[in-house]
Amino acid sequence: TFKDHFGTSFVNKLLADKDNEDTPVWVWAAGNRVDESPVFAGSLPAVYADLESHWLAVSAIDNSDGKTYKWAWYSGRCGQARKYCIGAVSDGGKHETQTDGKEQDNRGTSGATPVIAGGMAVIKSAFASKSNRWVRNRLLTTARHTTADGKPLLDADGNPVTLDADGLSDEFGH
């Protein structure tokens, strides 16, 4: 479990700091398995709801064709974490390995996660007096299910993502 891996004191510290506006925001990769929800660390607020305001899970968006933006086939979905999950392009591409000359696929949610963390850093630098919680909420409330030119984000089958009553999707959350 998470407590076994990180320790009870880590989880207790997070819970103790839950009301502090400047507690760090934890940004987690959704995982590179086609699961309905992020790996356990990304879904921790499903177990400890008080952590949600300081948590983000990140799913991957595939733009490898340079034309469309769709949920990446290798990415965990936001699922139960959709309220605190966001998608970002993970475009590691293919690179030759040094040993056998074959191409190695370097895409994954670990590549999408720093895009979101970097976005938070840009927002914080523009609004330095604002709290970490405010920065996180600003990022989530300004996220869209469209590209910069207004085209919809697509699911793995190439269809526009379906949004729930809160305007969230299982693939990308916000």
Number of helices: 5
Contiguous uncertain segments of 5+ residues:
none
Question: Outline, from the CA principal axes?
Answer: globular
The SSE order reads: HHEHEEEEEHH
- Kindly state the percentage of residues in helix: 25-40%
Strand content: 5-15%
Structural class: alpha/beta
Largest sheet: 4 strands, mixed
- Secondary structure: number of strands: 6
Structure description:
There is one protein chain. With 174 residues, this protein is an alpha/beta fold. 27% of the residues lie in helices and 14% in strands. It contains five helices and six strands; from the N terminus they run ααβαβββββαα. The strands form two sheets. Strands 1, 2, 3 and 4 form a four-stranded mixed β-sheet that branches. A two-stranded antiparallel ribbon has the order 5-6. β2 and β3 form a beta hairpin. The mean pLDDT is 81.
Q: Which SSEs are present, and which pair or pack?
A:
Layout: H1 2-6, H2 8-16, E1 26-29, H3 44-47, E2 55-62, E3 70-71, E4 85-89, E5 94-96, E6 103-105, H4 109-126, H5 132-142
Parallel strand pairs: 1-2, 2-4
Antiparallel strand pairs: 2-3, 5-6
Helix pairs in contact: 4-5
Provide a short characterization of the protein structure.
Helix content is 27%, strand content 14%.
Keywords:
174 residues, alpha/beta, four-stranded mixed beta sheet, two-stranded antiparallel sheet, 5 helices, 6 strands, 14% strand
